[in-house]
Every structure is written in structure tokens, then in C-alpha cells.
Amino acid sequence: MTSWLLGRSSRILIHQQQQLHKGPFLNYNSSCSSFRSTEPFRCRDALPGKNSSPTLFRFWRHESTKAEAQLELEQDVTEDDPKQIIDFPGGKVGFTSEMRFISESPQKRVPCYRVLDGNGEILKYSDYVQVGKEMGVKMYSDMVTLQTMDSIFYEVQRQGRISFYLTQMGEEAVNIASAAALSPDDIILPQYREPGVLLWRGFTLQQFVHQCFGNTHDFGKGRQMPIHYGSNKHNYFTVSSPIATQLPQAVGAAYSLKMDGKSACAVTFCGDGATSEGDFHAAMNFAAVMEAPVVFICRNNGWAISTPVEDQFRSDGIVVKGKAYGIWSIRVDGNDALAVYSAVHTAREIAIREKRPVLIEALTYRVGHHSTSDDSTKYRGTGEIEYWKTARNPVNRFKRWVERNDWWSDKDELELRSSVRKQLMHAIQVAEKAQKPPLEDLFSDVYDQLPSNLQEQERLLRKTIQKHPKDYPSDVPL
Amino acid sequence: MKGQAYGVRSIGDGNDAPAIYSAIQAARQMAITEERPILIEALTYRVGHHTTSDDSTKYRPANEIEWWRLTRDPVARFRKWIEKNGWWNDMAESQLINNLRQQARYTSLNPLIDDNWIPF
Fold it and tell me: Domain Dehydrogenase E1 component spans what residues (chain A) (predicted)?
């Protein structure tokens, strides 16, 4: 018996190599399918043999046949008998006599949806949502603005004028194109590398600068590190540093929108690193089960700080995780603005119309360091960085497309870059002169009225400052 | 499908004892020889209540429970197979059940008599 089983195992392994599982991965484009997953289990009205129904009687006979088939372990049934099924909670499952293990990863990876080739030309037979001149020019302008903002803020941090910064370099298309595809009513729960969405929604450059400087004009009143933007007015939840916390929150927000009958969805962003957090599991599972209208956009930029994706998971990236939870998903070229725009536009429609979650994995690359606290040349080759910075640059690629449409010129480019730079320089001067928030703001806004424990803390803090005035920043009003 | 989402090889089976035995043996071989994880989804059914604190007829129909308890009973199914092989019969079944009942009765009446006796 033992040798037989071992032999069978060997044969199964060989079989495994030859016939890896190639499950159908749903790559949803513009066309809409009305297909929904199997209806939940419904108990039959009566037991076989206790009912004269011909259907049930036939089932009873098939049951006997199946039982006999199950007993013939050494017999190989290459074709699954469609009549041999188990009526299981969650739906019918077919039986097989083949001991076939589903591969950990399909031989062929899930393909990546794209529209523009490297030269900024629309590929033949591309299935995409049209973008007109006005939209195209605004998208490109915001990508350039984001790029310029990043380079200037990075330098400002290096000069010690702000404490921290984090760039979007290389991921401008995911930022701007996804924002462009959404409605202002859609609620955004960002990670931290998506200020482009807020920019698109009208957050001013001055407001970005105020937040980074943490002055009295900062909506967060200086209580957050730079880049932790938030704005009620723009339906943009304040950035939360802990990884993945925004994901289950997005599901709750989406469910709320559904209950209110709103024609809007929640849209939440995360990096590839967030998919290794427990919150990702809870969010995906709740989203599917509660049928929440939420779009998950995962910026898979290949690196979770210094951990490359191959050391993070052995699955085929993030797109396959959607199926595990019962969520439609698609893999998109994150550096192709038109592909991102089309995928997000369609995902949003699916989420709202069908009241279901959708997962988008945007393949992109983090050209900059993780943050100003990081030097990424310590853990990845400069050649890799240069390749993504130049050959696969999303801004340049989209520029070629808008130029080819005659919507943009070199003159426009020079004017835009010069204008944005001036606006930023001016905004920085204004922000640096503004006052810091007062000490009392450290305790406000959590409760309508300050509870006694916080009152005591404030009293103690003020007493300590009086004793040791030189140990506290002189520019913070008491 | 969750196995593939995490990069883990997987297979499904359930109330079929030889199928489970075969799958686990093969999985064990793979895990050890290839130094990799394996996921097995065993499709089965909880015939009893969750615990003595639960009454499962409150949230699932009685005939669903009966269907799994009678028609898809894994013990009865395996018994048919070993009987067909000539390894088991009614007499052996009766002897086993009587023996177990006696042990259970003895143990419940004399819980502290033999500390070294290993409960089955």
C-alpha cells in the first residue's frame, strides 16, 4: 500500500508539472457582464428515497454510482463525470478521481492591461475609455505639477525646512489618471503616495505647502507629519501612516454609501506591502461578503520599502488575490495613464451599478526613495532605477500622446513648468512666514468638550514648559 | 483558490477517508521533499451543533443536517469500503461498539481509579 501510494504521488507530481492549473482569470474591460457568483446553498425540500420526485430518484441512483466510483481508488478517471457532484454550502462542486493539486502560481502570469505603447501610441484593437482634449491636457498638466511639486519639496526637506517628505516619482499616472476617472462624490481613502488625487480634486498648491510646514493654515493643525494630507471638502480621508488601516475603513465607508443609496463609491489605495497585512484580508473578505461598492487600487511598485515583491509573496502578484476573496480584479499597466483611466472608470461603474467591490493591481515603479529617510541605492541597482525613470516614465509617455494629438506643445510645457515652479516658491515663502498652531490644538478636535484627563495633561504640559522654556520650540504659541 | 492567492499549492476533498489519506500523504511528501507549504480544503459538514451552547436548528434547516448525517456519513461510507474488501463484518462492528461502550461506562463510573490508563 505504501509503495503504491508513493508511486501515485510521484505520478501526480509529474502530472502536476505537465498540467498546471490554469484557472480563468477575469480581465474585465469596458463591456459589462451581468454574471454573478453561484447562488448560496439551498437545502433540497426532501431527502432522496423519501420523495417520489423523478429528479430526486435519479439523484439517488447517481449517488450509488458515485459511491462505487469512489471505492475504486486505483482506477484513474481522466474525465470528470458531470453528474457526480456534491451539493455543498456555497454551491455545487464537481468530483474528480484525479489527485490534482492546484499550482501555487499559474505557469503563465495574469496579463497586464494597457492602451499606450512606449512611444505614446494607442495600440491597435485597444479597448479603452475615450479621453478628450480638455481632460487629456488637464491630466498631463497635473502629472507635471505633481512631478514639479515632488522635486521642489524634496529639496526643501533636504534643506531642513520641513521634517519629512515622500515622493510620487514614477507613479504619477496612477495618481492622476485614477482621480480623473472618479467623481468628486467618490470617497477617497489614500495610503500616502496619492496626493495627486487630492491635487486633481482642487486642493491648492498653497494648501499642500501649509500642511508640509504644519502651520496655522494646515487643516491638520500641525499634528501630522508632512504629506499626511486630508480634506473633508474634497472627500479625501486624512492619510494614516499605519499600513493597510484604510482598507477595512474604506469597506465601511462604501457600505454606508450603499445604505444611503448614493451614486458613489469608496476608493482606497495601498502599496504591495499592505497586501501582507491582516487588515487587507479583513477588508477584502468584508467587501465581498457585504457587497460593498469599493474600488481597491493597489500600486504594486515592486518594493515594500526595501523588500522586493519576490521576497514578499509567491503568488502571481496581487491580482490573483481578488479571486480568493470573490472579488473581480484586473492587472493594469500603472505607467499607462489611459489604461489606468479606463480601468478605474470601468471599475467605478461596476462597483456602483452592481454594488460590489473591484480590485485593481497597477504595475508601476517607485523611482524615488521610499521617503527622505531612505536611500534606495542601498538595496536596488541604479540601472533598474534609471530604466524605470527614463524608458518607462509615465509622464513622458503620456506627453507623447497628448503631443501627437496636437493638444500640447513645447511652449506650453515651458510655460506650465515655469508657472508651477513660481507658484510653489511663492507658496513656500507664505507658509514659512505663517505662525505655528497654538499649543492648545494638540488637545482639541477629538472630543466636543475637553475631558478632565486631557485638561490635566494640558495643565501639566504648560507647567513643564514654564519650568523649562528653552527645551521647547520658541515658534509655537502657548 | 486562496492557496493560489498566497502562492501555496492546494487541493480539495472531504468526507472520503481514502481521498483524504491519499491527499495528505502526497501533501506531506511534497512539503518535506520540496520544502514548501501545501493547503488542503476538506469539504465536510458539521452534523452536530457548534457546541453544547448552540442549537443549530435556529440557523440551518433540519433536513440539511439529516442529509449530511445519513446520506453523506463518512463513517458509514468507509465501513462499506472495508467490508467490501472483506476486512470487516457485522460481528466485528458489534464487538467494537460493545467494547467501547464498556470502556466508556467503566471510565465514567471510576474516573480516578487508573491515572495511567490512556483514554481513547
Answer: 143-438
